[in-house]
Amino acid sequence: MNDRAVELLEQYDIEVLRTRKGRGAIVCDTDRGCLILKEYTGNGERARLQNSLLAAVAAGGAVRAESMIPTREGELLVREGDGTAYVLKTWQEGRECNIYDRGECVQAVKLLAKLHESMELPGDTPGLPAPFSPEKEYEKHNREIRKVRKFLKQKGQKQQFEISLLGACDYFLEQALEVTEDWSRYSEAFGGNQSQTGDKISFCHGDYQYHNILMGTGGWFVVNFERCLPDDPVRDLYLLLRKLLEKGNWSVSLGTELLQAYSRERPVSARSRIDLYYRLAYPEKFWKIVNFYYNSGKAWIPGKNQEKLEKLIAQEKEKQHFLNEVFRDVVN
């Protein structure tokens, strides 16, 4: 981050005692506690929407989360001379949630359920984006996988990773197409996205993973709501589960315990459970590998790509077993 950004702090009604560089940000000790100044890629309307959502979370009182600090003029964003926007938020020093500690994973899921209880905004909130459409998103992913498969088939000399990727394309593309088709039928039958209930719109954090769940002296603290969006709350549960289950080799006992922990705090409807199943069933990790490969330089392919692909393929049997066991009521 540009050191000149520190000068932007003069626009806030705070007394800065000390600043230090954090990860892509400036951490500030102030008379209002610990704050963080970060670059913001969204526009003003997006920032106001995020601020409204964070205010709803704060009003709920069940989860400690970041809040946005306005300037003296009431603006949420400040800009450098080149137009780069920054936002000032509350912060807590602490460590990330330990994904190798089963107890902390359960706590993170319970925290998410409590967070979802207050992540709603009125349906007439200004600047509301269109609800997320999983089938449209996956149709786009499917086109990208097809495109890469065609590219690899036509490519002459291939590196080992490209040979392995092409060899896996047919299996995962067929899986992706089947899930997308099933999801589309399900969505049509039950009426589309589940983000709206009555006159309220349900929101998701959008990036609820261990990097954004911090443990400090004040307990758990949730940060980085920049990707928040209207969607069925199981979107966040899906992302966290997928991350944890990939680390845990798709353990049935771990997945069951995490789902039960969430449900005890916030029951999952039958429809949302079906939604969660399809999100987990779609081979998103394979698409991510494909997407990263296609949008990167191909003269030298990192060995990490091969490792990720091999791990994905090696875990596929366990993943399918997990889906069949844990979502037996949906599969059958």
Short description:
With 332 residues, the protein is an alpha+beta fold.
Topology, element by element:
Blueprint: E1 16-22, E2 25-30, E3 33-39, H1 44-60, E4 68-69, E5 78-79, E6 85-90, E7 95-96, H2 102-117, E8 120-122, H3 134-154, H4 160-190, E9 196-197, E10 200-204, E11 213-216, E12 219-222, E13 229-230, H5 234-247, H6 252-265, H7 270-281, H8 284-294, H9 303-326, H10 328-331
Helix pairs in contact: 2-6, 3-4, 3-8, 4-7, 4-9, 5-7, 8-9
Describe the structure.
This protein is an alpha+beta fold. It has helices at residues 44-60, 102-117, 134-154, 160-190, 234-247, 252-265, 270-281, 284-294, 303-326, 328-331, and strands at residues 16-22, 25-30, 33-39, 68-69, 78-79, 85-90, 95-96, 120-122, 196-197, 200-204, 213-216, 219-222, 229-230. Helix 3 runs antiparallel to helix 4, helix 4 (160-190) packs antiparallel against helix 7 and helix 4 (160-190) runs parallel beside helix 9. Strand 1 and strand 2 (25-30) form a beta hairpin. The protein is 49% helix and 16% strand. The protein is built from 10 helices and 13 strands. The model has no long low-confidence stretch (mean pLDDT 92). It starts with 15 loop residues before the first strand and ends with a helix. The strands form 3 sheets. Strands 1, 2, 3, 4, 5 and 6 form a 6-stranded antiparallel sheet that branches.
